[in-house]
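tool=predict chain=A
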Amino acid sequence: MKPELCILFYYAFNIASVAIPFAFIAFTIQRFCLLLYHTKHFFKTKRWIVLCIAGHWLAEFIISLPFVFRTTRKCTNVFWMTVYTLVTAVLLPSLVNFILNSMIFGHVRSSTRRVQPQNPSAWASRITTQQENRQQAPKISRREISLLRQMIFMFAVYTLVTAVVVPSLVNFILNSMIFGHVRSSTRRVQPQNPSAWASRITTQQENRQQAPKISRREISLLRQMIFMFAMFIGGWSPVFIVDIFLQLVNVNTMITAVTILFGEYVSNRALVYDENIRPNITRRNMAKPRWATVRRLSSVKEILT
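tool=predict ok
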């Protein structure tokens, strides 16, 4: 193969390797900005989506440039190239996703207590019980559990498919941030009926003492995240792991060693079996099968070695 074609081949290979992990990162960034900066209209427009897609492809072409400046004359995959692809396709995306998901989860978690009564007369009771509410830690609601499951699923899929540490961490971080945001925004729903505020204010102190459960929305989000992560990890990681393993270990030597050990194991088992049945047979009948077994095992060991 010509050097130009070899460079183009490995450059395209690295782009294809980081395409899915960086797509996960772009998706997580888009969701992160949409949740944390929901008041800004720009993150709700199609222009922001197009910008995320364009940045995704631009990052792929830029991060694969080291393969263009390779100095090896032979068209072979160098060890540092495999490690670089592993870092850019697995480790880096995993780290970024992990950080962003953690921030999202923290934001959702913190926004759970943001629901405030619109009636001014309710502020007095709220201020008096504010210190007690801070001492009580809220339980995880179903909504938060759903979000957490979805994040874990996405991270598992991402890690198993690509086996890239970076994309896996990135997806995990972003999904954690999203889950935190959903967790914090669980209690933002306010009743629109003014007559409902009286009963709500009277039972507000009792409701604060009770920990909120995880909602179905959070459980669904958590399942989706876990699923995406599992798909990401299971798809690409075996490719890089096997490649690195073959470069570091001599497979022929391992096969020979395993074959010899297997032959020794079979020989020992046959001799032990022969010793166990020895008391049940006569000496005349025992001599022929035993020495025949030993001769057969010796010939097998000579062939294997």
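Confidence is low (pLDDT under 50) at residues 281-294. The chain has two domains: 3-115+139-190+214-249, 253-304.
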